[in-house]
Specification:
The protein has about 160 residues and is mainly alpha-helical. The chain is about 60% helix and about 0% strand. The chain has 4 helices and no strands. The chain is elongated and about 85 Å long.
Length: about 160
């Protein structure tokens, strides 16, 4: 006795494949493969960036009690840490956005809903990346008052 099971990709009445699960010749399959590869590579890089970030902030020096405005100001005074935190920000946001894009594509059934959720995701990702980059590179630890004199709360690196 033999039984046949329908494949989940086939529509039972029309006999056509669901277009959501078919490969298009327009290069979308190549994009998905590159997105998949990006997730694996960025995940490995993020692990290194994150654990180094946590180690230098929490284990070296005074630990968590030493993290304050002056600590961040001293850290971002060095270009290495600016680019380190920038790489962490960009990779984490792009990695997370790519994962959310996949979830939206998998679970949003209507095209219109999928489109608007994707637009919200892309807008939020772009805004956070742009604002985070501006904060990292325009951060000035040396606070001055209206007369131009250095304020008392400015960290020691400003004096």
């Amino acid at each position: 006795m033999s039984t046949t099971a329908e494949t989940p990709l086939a529509a039972p009445r029309s006999g056509k494949l669901d277009p959501k699960y078919t490969r298009s010749k327009g290069g979308k399959g190549n994009f998905e493969m590159l997105a998949w590869l990006f997730m694996r590579v960025s995940g490995v890089i993020l692990v290194v960036l994150l654990f180094t970030h946590l180690f230098t902030n929490l284990m070296v020096g005074d630990g968590i009690s030493g993290i304050d405005f002056g600590f961040v100001a001293g850290k971002w005074a060095h270009p290495l840490w600016q680019f380190w935190d920038l790489a962490l920000l960009w990779l984490a946001m792009l990695h997370g956005a790519n994962g959310m894009r996949t979830i939206i594509n998998d679970y949003a059934e209507r095209d219109r809903v999928r489109f608007w959720l994707s637009m919200i995701l892309y807008s939020a990702t772009a805004a956070i990346i742009i604002l985070g980059t501006l904060v990292i590179f325009t951060f000035d630890a040396c606070m001055v008052d209206a007369s131009g004199a250095l304020m008392e709360r400015s960290p020691a690196i400003c004096r």
